[in-house]
């Protein structure tokens, strides 16, 4: 007899093995998704800081700002939502023309650098990235 196909027992064994593998992989996958979303949000903050600086080089004073616990940032007058992340503190960075340098706050002798913006995951609050503007010229680093 030339039988074709799989028996019910073989299919059940394959399904059981797949179920075990999925149960083992699911937590790692969720952690990966959380880290990826946080990296995306921190990258978005860094990109918007750089875009705000570049826009200031066109001759108009430009400001980038965050709010404490905020789920969005304001860059060049536009509110941009952060994917699954919040910012810890209220920060405002103003770039001035013609070179896109950080503007000196009123009453200060010099601008305060580095400016650090902490981007925290909403899924796992212990997980965060720090976006820093490390020089007067607006160099941005994500850690």
Please outline the helices and strands.
Layout: H1 8-56, E1 62-66, E2 72-75, E3 78-81, E4 85-87, E5 91-96, E6 101-102, E7 115-121, E8 128-133, E9 140-142
Antiparallel strand pairs: 1-2, 1-5, 2-3, 4-7, 5-6, 7-8, 8-9
Structure write-up:
There is one protein chain. This protein is an alpha+beta fold. It has a single domain (9-142), classed as minor pseudopilin epsh fold (3-Layer(bab) Sandwich), CATH 3.55.40. It is built from 1 helix and 9 strands, in the order αβββββββββ. The chain has one helix at 8-56; strands spanning 62-66, 72-75, 78-81, 85-87, 91-96, 101-102, 115-121, 128-133, 140-142. The radius of gyration is 24 Å and the shape is elongated. The mean pLDDT is 88.
Give the assembly state of these chains: single chain
CATH class: Alpha Beta
Count of discrete alpha- or pi-helical segments spanning 4 or more residues: 1
Output the radius of gyration. 24 Å
Strand % is 25-35%
Helix content percent band: 25-40%
CA(first)-CA(last) distance: 66 Å
Q: Write down how many β-strands occur, each being a DSSP E stretch of 2 or more residues.
A: 9
Spatial strand sequence of the major β-sheet = 3-2-1-5-6
Element pattern in H and E = HEEEEEEEEE
How many strands, what sense, and barrel or not for the largest sheet? 5 strands, antiparallel
Provide the CATH architecture. 3-Layer(bab) Sandwich
């Amino acid at each position: 007899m030339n039988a074709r196909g799989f028996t019910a027992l073989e299919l059940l064994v394959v399904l059981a093995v797949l179920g075990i593998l999925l149960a083992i992989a699911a937590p790692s996958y969720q952690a990966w998704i959380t880290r990826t979303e946080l990296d995306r949000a921190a990258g978005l903050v860094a990109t918007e800081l750089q875009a705000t600086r570049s826009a200031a080089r066109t001759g108009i004073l430009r400001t980038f700002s965050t709010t404490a616990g905020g789920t969005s940032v304001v860059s060049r007058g536009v509110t941009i939502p952060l994917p699954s992340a919040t910012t810890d503190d209220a920060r405002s960075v103003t770039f001035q023309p013609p070179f896109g340098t950080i503007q000196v706050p009123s009453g200060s002798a010099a601008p305060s650098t580095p400016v650090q913006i902490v981007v925290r995951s909403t899924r796992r609050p212990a997980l965060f990235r720090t976006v820093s503007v490390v020089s007067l010229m607006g160099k941005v680093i994500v850690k």
